[in-house]
Design a protein that fits this description.
The chain is α/β, with parallel strands linked by helices. It has helices spanning about 35-45, 45-50, 80-90, 100-115, 120-125, 130-135, 140-145, 150-160, 180-200, 205-210, 250-265, 270-285, 290-315, 320, and strands at about 10, 25, 30-35, 65, 70-75, 225, 230. The protein is elongated, with a radius of gyration of 29 Å. The chain starts with 9 loop residues before the first strand and ends in a 5-residue tail after the last helix. The structure holds zinc ion.
């Protein structure tokens, strides 16, 4: 009988090409990984059981063999297999791979679950706390972390998600979490919004920080000279934003109005800083020599202060995310 023609197979790269390896794992895309059973058995009870099964006597098994080694076909592709094998191997032989996108994290996570690689599951999930991943996909990260019941990663992702609008667009991993998980996230977000509102209604944190008007002279310079330059900016009229009951410069009032609106949806320090960068650009391109020279310094200090206050205001709210019996 003629054997069926197998697709061209190639060997994986080091360290999965070792001559003394004792088993071969073949990925879904036909790459052969020569690995040591011991490392896999130590990392995973699944492999420990699999490799511990009694071998059938020679010739009595339909086990595929190659170079005297058993060949085990797995359903993972070579990229995923490579990543999770690196996690299984001792770090002297293979460094933990870096995972910096969610698609990779998800497929390795699925493999880790399937093969009961508990330690690796935890390590993979730590990649969810990678700011690179969080900045792009806070909501997807939240869903994955919540699904894996990881408290720290869930809270970190929820906090990054405050940069986004309250009601998100549909996202790929929404089905990983339950409606009550999602409701917990929305409630958290909403409570953070409420908590931050007080900051904008009472400027005590600001007047405490600068002590008096001369502590932030740039804010009250309209119609006066500053370092030889005359400030031709107008004064603000929105009395909600009058520190010490005095009218500040109009562009700052505009900034506060904008931030007030933005924080109603995205209560994050990042919101405050990003809006400050826009204000700095705007003021610099406006026609005031006095302000354009010092807006950056003044607004950087001010927005860092406000961002810090925002982060402090939302920090205690995170108990909402785990003070349930579920996490
Ligand atoms: Zn000015």
């Amino acid at each position: 009988m003629e054997l069926p023609t197998l697709p061209t197979q190639t060997c994986a790269s080091a360290p999965f090409d070792h001559a003394k390896a004792d088993v071969i794992l073949r990925s879904a895309d036909g790459i052969e990984f020569r690995v040591f059973m011991l490392f896999l058995s130590l990392a995973s009870p699944f492999f420990e059981t699999l490799f511990g099964l009694p071998q059938a006597p020679d010739g009595a098994s339909d086990q595929e063999m190659k170079d005297g080694l058993a060949v085990i076909a797995v359903s993972e592709d070579s990229k995923t297999l490579d990543t999770f094998l690196r996690f299984c191997y001792p770090s002297t032989l293979a460094e933990d791979p870096s995972l910096d996108n969610l698609t990779e994290i998800l497929s390795v996570l699925a493999a880790a679950k399937k093969y009961s690689l508990d330690l690796i599951e935890r390590k993979v999930c730590q990649a969810l706390a990678n700011p690179k991943v969080l900045e792009i996909d806070p909501l997807r990260s939240f869903a994955i972390a919540r699904n894996a019941r990881l408290k720290h990663e869930t809270i970190t992702a929820a906090r990054y998600n405050l940069r986004q609008p309250l009601i998100p667009a549909l996202f790929a991993e929404i089905d990983l979490i339950t409606a009550s998980d999602f409701l917990a996230l929305l409630t958290y977000h909403k409570k953070c919004i409420i908590s931050v509102q007080n900051l904008m209604k009472n400027l005590k944190w600001m007047t405490d920080h600068y002590v008096n008007r001369s502590g932030c002279g740039w804010l009250f310079s309209s119609g006066s000279h500053y370092n030889g330059d005359y400030c031709r900016c107008e004064q603000g009229t929105d009395k909600r934003f009058f520190p010490w009951n005095a009218a500040p410069i109009a562009w700052w009032t505009t900034y506060m109005q904008e931030v007030y609106e933005l924080l109603q949806d995205s209560p994050s320090g990042d919101t405050v800083r990003t809006a400050a960068d826009r204000t700095i650009q705007k003021v610099r391109s406006a026609n005031c020599a006095a302000c354009s020279g010092r807006v950056k310094e003044g607004m950087t200090e001010f927005s860092n202060l406000l961002a810090l206050k925002v982060e402090e205001a939302v920090a205690p709210v995170c108990t909402l995310l785990y003070n349930t019996d579920k996490l």
